[in-house]
Amino acid sequence: MPGSANLNIMMKAARKAGRSLVKDFREVENLQVSMKGAGDFVSRADLAAEAILKEELRGARPTYGWLAEEGGEEAGEDPTRRWIVDPLDGTTNFLHGLPHWAVSIALEHKGKIVAGVIYDAAKDELFFAEKGEGAWMNESRLRVSGRGRMIESIFATGVPFGGRSDLPATLQDLARIMPECAGVRRWGSAALDMAYVAAGRYDGFWERRLNAWDMAAGIIIVREAGGLIEPLTEGGDILEDGEVICSNEAIFDKFAKVIRG
Fold first, then answer.
1. Is 89 assigned to a binding site?
2. Where does Mg(2+) bind (predicted)?
3. What are the pLDDT digits (tens) for 194-218?
């Protein structure tokens, strides 16, 4: 499954940043006695990973624009192409020594995501997709689940923390969805939630108040795995609104009806 030059650049960058993060992750448990110390350490790990990604991606494609969690947005000489990067999605998991976090890289062309890579370095699972070429995890082709009944399906979401204003809406979502399904998971990484939908591990995912870098790579990976993905608000824009809902085609309408109320 040879990918384009751009996809290969993305995969190489994700693996390199992932190796750096795995090395730092091994040190996290030694820092748990000091919350501030651990937090500062993880911030440095995050910034170091972003620096690696920037060196690899912009070094290979210096004319492309750049949007990343830590480094913000930079225009490129080529206004049609942009890297959208999250060097560490699942920072709180990383901080607590939980091996569920990922490097996420997407390539946007003329406002559309055309390639995406999500690398779970702790488990060495590399999810990737390119427009028209299908979705993959390492050497295996990905397909969304084939479940057609809500009551047999499990879903993923994020539960707002720290008293965020969208907590009531999420609690209302949960009150509607939980009686209709086989369970809801909250694992703390939107990028991996979307990758897991693509892999058929979850049957669907929804979340509010996300950033573009949380979702961009997952959008194309879900689509190329045969899933449906839409803005949570019909007629909206996923990346601009920061809201998303996705699942396999068989349950999408039922799932979306429940979540959208």
1. yes
2. 69, 86, 88-89, 214
3. 999 999 999 999 999 999 999 999 9
